[in-house]
Amino acid sequence: MSRKKLPRFEHNRVSPNVLEPGKELYETIKGNWRERYFLNSNPIVIEIGCGRGEYTVGLARHYPHLNFIGIDRKGDRIAQGSKQALNEGLTNVAFLRTDVFKLLDFFGKQEVNEIWITFPDPQPRISQVKNRLTDPRYLTLYREILAHEGILHLKTDHDDFFDFSVQTLPTNGFSDLITTRDLYASEMNHLHLGIKTKYEEIFTRKGFSIKYLKCKKAGY
């Protein structure tokens, strides 16, 4: 194990804004995020695969009236976002250490108002398509936890993954897609708020255009 990871894991163990195995809230938070963690009734926004938490923390700065939860299975990654949020005194941020396919273990039905997926692994090989975060099996989970007409956002640099997502969302319970293949050159440019993840910085420096889509959970 890397020496850098040990202090990050220790940070997570004692940090009040990290929920991970071994902590009481980790086992009991489902359906109770507002009452037991945020202590308010504000809307909940989650970022799936949040990595180092740049987007989760960045959004929390801009929207203090919303509650944000960054989700990632890598503890050494979320420790960095946790530290940043604590250093800035952001009380509307939490980090959850778990796998995406376990979302229903931590969120009640319609508990979440918005989902962000920012620069996930595009899983480019044919054998990997089922692992894409907009594969129908994941979209079923998102629909379960999203409130009526809850919003899903996606940002990626990868053309094939973006096209796949544009095709799968309307046939799996999401509607009113708004898309752009070049966010920074579009009229939706304001939506990025100046927030960039590590990978977004890398891709934009290399000249890749950033694809973005927004849609909502369709009615039953």
UniProtKB/TrEMBL annotation:
It comes from the Bacteria. It catalyses: guanosine(46) in tRNA + S-adenosyl-L-methionine = N(7)-methylguanosine(46) in tRNA + S-adenosyl-L-homocysteine. It is an enzyme of class 2 (transferase). Its EC number is 2.1.1.33. Substrate binds at D157, T197, K198, Y199, E200. SUPFAM superfamilies: S-adenosyl-L-methionine-dependent methyltransferases. One of its GO terms (molecular function) is tRNA (guanine(46)-N7)-methyltransferase activity. Pathway: tRNA modification; N(7)-methylguanine-tRNA biosynthesis. The keyword Methyltransferase applies. S-adenosyl-L-methionine binds at E47, D72, D99, D121. Keywords: Methyltransferase, S-adenosyl-L-methionine, Transferase, tRNA processing. One of its GO terms (cellular component) is tRNA methyltransferase complex. InterPro entries: SAM-dependent_MTases_sf, tRNA_(Gua-N-7)_MeTrfase_Trmb, tRNA_methyltr_TrmB_bact. Transmembrane segments: none annotated. The keyword Transferase applies. Catalyzes the formation of N(7)-methylguanine at position 46 (m7G46) in tRNA. Belongs to the class I-like SAM-binding methyltransferase superfamily. TrmB family. HAMAP family: tRNA_methyltr_TrmB. PANTHER family: 3-DEOXY-D-MANNO-OCTULOSONIC-ACID TRANSFERASE/TRNA GUANINE-N 7 - -METHYLTRANSFERASE, PENTACOTRIPEPTIDE-REPEAT REGION OF PRORP DOMAIN-CONTAINING PROTEIN. This is tRNA (guanine-N(7)-)-methyltransferase.
